[in-house]
Amino acid sequence: MTHLAAAPTPSVRVRAPGKINLSLRVGPVQDDGFHPLVTIFQAVALYEEVTAREVPPGSGVSLTVDGPQAERVPLDRTNLAWRAAEALAEHVGLAADVALHVVKGVPVAGGMAGGSADAAATLVACDALWETGLPRSELQTVAAGLGSDVPFALLGHTAVGTGRGHLLTPAMTRGEFHWVFATRDDGLSTPAVYGRFDELGAGAPSGDAPDEMPADPGLAEETGLMQALRAGDPHALGAALHNDLQEAALSLRPELARTLEVAREAGALGTLVSGSGPSVAALARSRQHALAIAATWTAEGAADAVWCTSGPAQGARVLP
Ligand code: C5P
């Protein structure tokens, strides 16, 4: 008897990276509720993986999620991956019929843009599955409509972000930087951190607020950081790390101060709250040093989980 193998259902697997903001400068809230930013993103080698699988016409979108902390991820339209599939379908005039499967590799609600990476990976996966052939520039436009960090998850590597963080200029870097992250089981809501930032009056116009900077503010404020990146100098980069949201995150989660202190005591070249937190990042001298900082965090009970990685990492791309 001969067995005829059924043709496999077409599917596309894409991975997209999480990120750290090496520098994040935040201006006063605007009428649209957003804050103007000048930020330098670096993608790190912690990846979300999204598989988009063909389904019969009229099936709509479905979503399953796997991996550490998967139980904390919504499985409905509030998930950014689901919204990305719908946004792309609408953009190209197709029906949003796809089964999405996400494997989490980026800490959930940690200020590392894991949800944005899911959205970026979904855009690339559905674009390939549906053979829409959109140029990357057009995918970037759809990405910007989904969230401030989604365009960077598409682009990857290291980039200066302005506007809401969605207008990107790639930045030159040399070599590899070794990062270690301390995450907490309880995430922080990004709008809540921006709200506390406003309450603290931290975005009030001052000499270094983004809206008072010159037309190319990223580079004007960040000369030292950009030089450190170009030189591949982790000591100089450690000294230049900066996050305007750190005070707001620390005021919502005071225990993060101890996490920062423990990393400094373990010889980190620089430490900061990652984005809107509550993840804390430490820059290490080497992979071995990153492992040592991670071990110290664990021993001191200063983190619920630790993640060693490196940057820069590639943006969203199709896996073979
Ligand atoms: O764009 P995204 O959906 O990631 O933003 C989430 C929330 O974070 C926004 O609704 C807003 O409250 C806040 N935010 C902001 N300014 C930015 C980016 C985000 O106030 N530049």
Automatic annotation (TrEMBL):
Keywords: ATP-binding, Isoprene biosynthesis, Kinase, Nucleotide-binding, Transferase. The active site is at K19, D149. The keyword ATP-binding applies. The lineage of its organism: Bacteria, Bacillati, Actinomycetota, Actinomycetes, Micrococcales. Residues 79-156 form the GHMP kinase N-terminal domain. Belongs to the GHMP kinase family. IspE subfamily. It catalyses: 4-CDP-2-C-methyl-D-erythritol + ATP = 4-CDP-2-C-methyl-D-erythritol 2-phosphate + ADP + H(+). This is 4-diphosphocytidyl-2-C-methyl-D-erythritol kinase. Residues 225-301 form the GHMP kinase C-terminal domain.
